[in-house]
Structure formats: C-alpha cells, structure tokens
Write a structure and sequence with these properties.
The protein is α+β, with helices and mostly antiparallel strands. It contains 9 helices and 6 strands. Helix 1 runs parallel beside helix 2, helix 2 packs across helix 5 and helix 7 packs across helix 8.
C-alpha cells in the first residue's frame, strides 16, 4: 500500500467534510479544484491507526448528524399525520355544520312563509283584533311560545354560523401547519440522505482489511467506554426488577435482533433507534412518543442507579439516540445505517439520562 493510498484516504476525509458543509442550506461555494491523482510510484506507506481514527471520528460525526436529522424527519412525519387526522375531523364538522345551518335556514324560511300567509300581520296585532276572550288567552300563550322559539332559532342560527366559520378557519390553519411540516420533513430527508451518502462514500475508500481494522477500532472504543462505565461501580447499585410491561417491551425488542437499521422505519422488517423503542412499548400496551428527543422530554426521568429492564437510555447531549436497557449493564438498540438491531454495553456511548415509560 503506497503513500498515494494513504493520501487518498486523507483526501476522502477532507472531501467528505466539504460535501457535508456544501449540503448546508443557504451557503454557496466556488467549484473545487480537481483532486490531484495519487502517485502510483510512491514508496509503500501503510494507512496508520491514526488515519483510521480520523475516519472513525468523521463517520461518527456523519452518522450522528444523520440521527439528528432522522429525529427531525420522524417528528415532522408524526405531526403531519396528526394534522391530517385533524383536517379530516374538521372536514366532517364543516359538513355537519353546513347541514345544520341549512336546516335552520329552512326553519326560518318556514316561519317567514307562515307569517306571509296570515297577511303579514304580526301575531300580536292579530290577537288584539280578536273578539273571542278564550281565543285571546290561548293566543297569548302561543305568542309567548312563538317569541321564545324565534329567539332560540335566531340564537341557534348565529351559533351555527359562528361554528362553521371557526371550523373553516381551523382547517385552514391545519393545512398551513401540514404544509410547513411537509417542508420540514423534506429538508430533514435531504440532510439524512446527504450525511449517509457522505459516510458511505468515505467507507468505500477503504480496502477490506482497512474496514476490518476500522471495525476493531470501533469495538475497542465502545469497550473502553463500557469498561470505564462499569469501573465506576454503577452496576453495583442497579438492581431494579422489570415490570410486566417492561418485560413485554424487552421481549419485543429482543425478537427484533438482527433486523437492519433503516432511518425513519418502525418495523416490522427494519427500525431506526426510536422506531424500535416506541414499537416495543406500544406492543407492551403503553404507547410513547415516536422520537428519542420527545421520549426524553415527555417521559419521567429516573436515576441511572434506579433503572430497570425496559427503561430507555437516552444518549448524547442532544438526545439523538435511544436504546432499551435489558439488565446486567446491557442494551438493545438499532445503532446506525449499515448495522442491525444488536446488544451492546449500556455505557458504550455518552449517557444523557434514563426515562421510564411505565413510571
């Protein structure tokens, strides 16, 4: 392996960094100069672990950014689904409101036609012209009833008109929000695909042996983090027993082992990280938010020392990853593109905190 080979990997990291920046909206750059063709006559210089560590660090950044964008995509998708359902309900209310308004107008029209048939005289005038005392008394009662009915009809007609206007305004608002979330979803999708493509391009620059060495470096980094976490003595304090719902959630997640990661997926053939945890708890009869960030925001927090199987561990400062604790210091999670649902050490990534869906 020559110096040109090492230079190619270094160049790949640089190019991927540039591609990532260029993908950001609102930024324009001049076309880059052509990349020099690596020399094939250079003396053999192996790709060092330091070079591969740079690749690993860049891959971590790319997949982390993809995870953040995936959460944004999932959140926009969830909101779009809710808004679509609300629009359907509002449409039903608008139809019913229009039917009610038409009915009230028919009733008001019938009252007007009745008055026309009596010569246009109001009921009070007709009553005064009556020379029958009993008819006078009976008519007085009917007039009071009629006046109350007329006032009620007018009030009901006004309310129906106001309701119809409000339903229409609400539907318009929901349409605007739906379009906004569709745009957010499209932007997030573009970011996800750009980051993943950049990561795949970077990995494609590596030979088979270098990929194997890179995988070992990733395993060593995870093992180092897990060992440090266990050496802190935290596992000695963790003794919580799973609830019935927690056991069901763990059983569901365990049954998904080996299935591929796919961003935006929530089963049954593939999952992203929060798709796996949300579906596991839905199967246990306790639905939770779809995204890792909302799981962190909305679910009750518990101390790490108090966690029990079925609890969810949220990772990184931005809550961009989530896994399910299964006991004995281990988790089940959907790691990232190119990986499958797997068991890992709970301390193999930076822990933000723990949440409990069935607190």
């Amino acid at each position: 392996m020559g110096a040109g080979r090492r230079a190619l990997i270094t160049t790949a990291v640089t190019v991927v960094c540039a591609v990532t920046v260029l993908a950001a909206p609102g930024i324009a750059f001049a076309s880059p100069s052509p990349t020099p063709t690596p020399s094939t006559t250079a003396s053999p210089t192996p790709v060092t672990n330091k070079d591969l560590e740079a690749v690993r660090a860049k891959l971590d950044d790319l997949y982390h950014d993809a995870a953040v964008a995936t959460d944004a995509y999932n959140a926009a998708e969830e909101q779009a689904q809710k808004q679509s359902a609300q629009i359907v309900e509002l449409a039903k209310k608008i139809v019913k409101g229009q039917e009610k308004l038409d009915e009230l107008k028919d009733r008001a029209g019938a009252a007007a036609r009745s008055q026309y048939r009596t010569g246009g005289l109001p009921d009070e005038a007709q009553l005064i012209l009556s020379d029958n005392p009993q008819a006078f008394l009976d008519g007085a009662g009917r007039i009071l009833q009629g006046q109350r009915a007329t006032k009620g009809l007018i009030a009901e007609l006004t309310r129906a008109q106001d309701d119809l206007k409000q339903y229409t305004a609400d539907a318009s608002t929901q349409w605007q929000l739906l379009e906004k979330n569709r745009q957010a979803k499209a932007a997030a999708k573009k970011t996800v695909t750009t980051q993943i493509a950049a990561a795949e391009k970077l990995e494609s620059q590596l030979e088979k042996q270098e990929k194997e060495r890179l995988a070992k470096l990733e395993q060593q980094a995870a093992l180092k983090a897990q060992t440090a976490w266990l050496d802190s003595g935290v596992l000695k304090d963790i003794s919580g027993k799973a609830s019935a719902e927690g056991k069901a959630a763990v059983a569901y997640a365990t049954a998904q082992l080996g299935k591929p990661y796919e961003w935006g997926a929530e089963g049954p053939k593939s999952y992203d990280c929060s798709g796996l945890t949300s579906q596991a708890w839905a199967s246990a009869g306790d639905p939770i938010p779809r995204t890792s960030q909302e799981q962190w925001k909305q679910l009750p927090h518990v101390d790490v020392k108090d966690m029990r199987p079925g609890d969810l561990i949220i990772y990184f400062d931005d809550a961009s990853h989530v896994a399910m604790y299964i006991g004995d210091g281990a988790i089940i999670h959907a790691p990232r593109p190119g990986r499958t649902v797997t068991i890992a050490g709970a301390g193999s990534m930076p822990i933000l905190g723990v949440v409990r869906p069935d607190a």
